[in-house]
Design brief:
This protein is α+β, with helices and mostly antiparallel strands and 181 residues long. Helix content is 23%, strand content 39%.
């Protein structure tokens, strides 16, 4: 198992960065190799990715979610992928996004890529593309303000999210987004 930690500063308020991160189905827009993410329910995601030319599928459960602070997950089947992303305000218009990822490379090609630092570079690139994506928009494509603690969903939705194009759980679950055109 490999643990990858990366962080990046983004020039948007913490709420904007956090709300965009909760739009999991938009991940293919800025994450290399992620083909599709489907939001099954408030705490379940189905992922499809192409890694070293091999299509991988996995299901992940959000284990903790606190608005403007943290989203943590663990894979429940398929490829091993556990982690968390933390958000820390650095002022009115700046946020530190800190990502910690635990992955278990499978097969010789993935293990070799991991040993050569390919996974770390991909994660760093994903964070840079997230920064560029959210900074170019300045507003999230939606957001979900609910909480998940100890596996329990607490819907603290804030339908009046400033700057969001849509609020409520409808903002959390946009139409499925695939690889960008």
């Amino acid at each position: 198992m490999s643990r990858i930690t990366e962080e990046i500063e983004v020039e948007v308020p913490v709420r904007v960065a956090y709300d965009q991160w909760t739009q999991f189905e938009s991940f293919p827009r800025f994450m290399a190799g992620i083909d599709r993410v489907v939001q099954v329910d408030d705490k379940t995601l189905e992922w499809t990715a192409t890694i070293a030319g091999v299509v991988k599928h996995w299901r992940a459960e959000i284990t903790e979610q606190q608005p403007d602070k943290v989203v943590a997950w663990r894979s429940t089947d398929g490829a091993q992928n556990d982690g968390q992303v933390r958000f820390r305000s650095l002022g009115a218009q700046r946020t530190m996004v800190e990502l910690e990822l635990d992955v278990a490379p499978e097969g010789m090609v993935e293990k070799a890529a991991d040993a050569l630092g390919v996974v770390e570079r991909r994660v760093r690139g994903d964070l840079e593309r997230f920064r560029d994506f959210i900074e170019s928009r300045a507003v999230p494509s939606g957001g979900w303000r609910g909480r998940i603690e100890d596996g329990q969903v607490e819907d603290d939705d804030d339908d009046d999210a400033p700057g969001a194009e849509s609020g409520g759980t409808a903002g959390r679950k946009p139409t499925e987004i695939g690889r960008p055109a």
